[in-house]
Amino acid sequence: MAQSTSRGTHDGDASKSKHADAVRETVQRQRQIQAETDQRDEQKKSQQSQQKQAGGKQQEKAPVQAGAEREPVNPMPAQHLRKPGNEHELREAPRFLANEYRGSGKLEGMAALITGGDSGIGRSVAVLFAREGADVAIVYLSEHQDAEDTKRYVEDEGRRCLAISGDVRDSRFCEEAVAKAVEAFGRLDVLVNNAAFQQHSEKLEDITDEHLQETLQTNIGGYLHMARAALPHMKQGASIINTGSETGIFGSKQLLDYSATKGAIHAFTKALASNLLDRGIRVNCVAPGPVWTPFNPADAPPEKVAQFGKSSDMGRPAQPEEISPAFVFLASPVCSSYVNGVVLPVMGGPHG
Question: What pTM was estimated for this model as a whole?
């Protein structure tokens, strides 16, 4: 008996070490892709500086405020983060607590798993799910401090939280993450696929095979892996919510591969919704516009980060707390039992 226990512990340690090694490799790979893009950006910036001509300044519209709280407006901090991007390093902390939001037990007694739950939209969703009564497991890559912060915020809402580090590109890890969540909470009612990789490119020729595979395997491969792992544990009344994007609707000329994966996520949502309908499991998608999270400062150069979201209909980026209530709506059986296969735009206007 002792030998069996020892062997099981050894296997578990080996598995944990394997995932940690995979995470380190993924972070190094993403940072190399980022470094190559940063170098091209600097070259372009230098060329533009030499060619810049004086021009008339157009009158700018005032940013729109339409919520319960006044949200930050441009300019945002001119900051560039190393991938994968840490929320605690952002100079303007994203708003995620939704202080005016009052829980009413919409997810009471349920359990959720959220990928990319350490920061940004994922963090705000985790907090609101907990406020509505759900226990929450968050999956993240290597942002350990952010994950611990999110765990604390969830627990402050009176619910349990499990933080799991790993790479959603790895289907084996996805299976293990789901198993850990089910073991901890005894059930799985909501899966939120939210983890993503984004790195802009001026030209299609700049997207290397490594860059392309990183985007494809994270953004759509990871969603498929996690959904496949979760489904055996999900019962009638459960739901899957995918994070899409306005880029999946309108495209983005500098986010060619990312836009393609977000369009694929929208199609995957509708296809899986039809596939699971007879099982009573709903599948929907939230398609945000620009949102202030570590995601874009870990992509764009500082001068573009400062103007992030300025061209949107509301003239400013959303804050995570303005997006997360849409996930609560789609997760709650009392709110959306007849909502299935929907791509819900939360873009601040019809044009994002």
Answer: 0.87
